[in-house]
Amino acid sequence: MKGLKIGLDVVKGLVIFLGAVLAIMIASNWDGSYADSGWKFVLENVPDVTNPLNIMLAITWIVLLICVVAAAAFGILAVVQNPKKNVRALAGIGLVVVIGLIAYYGMADTSLPRNLSEAPPGDSMLKIISSGISMFYVLALLAIVALLYLEVSKLFK
Asked: How confident is the model over 101-146, as pLDDT tens digits?
């Protein structure tokens, strides 16, 4: 485990260093007139800004992928090592999956306001966005209810 921690610290340091260098490259190549041109103009016509930004985005996706894989691997390892202790966590994950499926298949909406300035995304993307928002509302409501229940139950103990 100590070797893994050292390796992760080295990766973290490299990501921080690369992010700082790329941020300095973006800031040093930024011109005050770009603000008047708009971000779309900058992303399409100024490679001195977009190239470091693209590298930063690629690093972000790679680190996100590493984090997701690590979280899944450590979660599966914890469940395999002690399944009885982690039954509640598995039930919670199952509940979130069920709420996600209900939000996607039952609550998603593909309608848009009429006065959009740009071309609308496709129906499948609208359904994903709408179901994500619906899922957020349901989970937020459940979290508030759970917090209220816990606080009220503490009052009567």
From this structure: 999 998 887 777 677 666 667 778 888 888 999 999 999 999 999 9
The token pair at 128 is 């994903």
CB atoms within 10 A of CB 52: 21
Give Cα separations from 112 to 22, 30, 118, 128 (angstroms).
38, 36, 12, 13
Pair of tokens at residue 52: 């470091």
Q: Can you give the three-state secondary structure of the chain, one letter per residue?
A: CHHHHHHHHHHHHHHHHHHHHHHHHHHHHCCCCHHHHCHHHHHHHCHHHHHHHHHHHHHHHHHHHHHHHHHHHHHHHHHHHCCCCCHHHHHHHHHHHHHHHHHHHHHCCCCCCCCCCCCCCCHHHHHHHHHHHHHHHHHHHHHHHHHHHHHHHHHCC
pTM: 0.54
Q: Do residues 57 and 90 touch, judged by C-beta distance below 8 A?
A: no
Q: How far is CA 21 from the centre of its chain?
A: 24
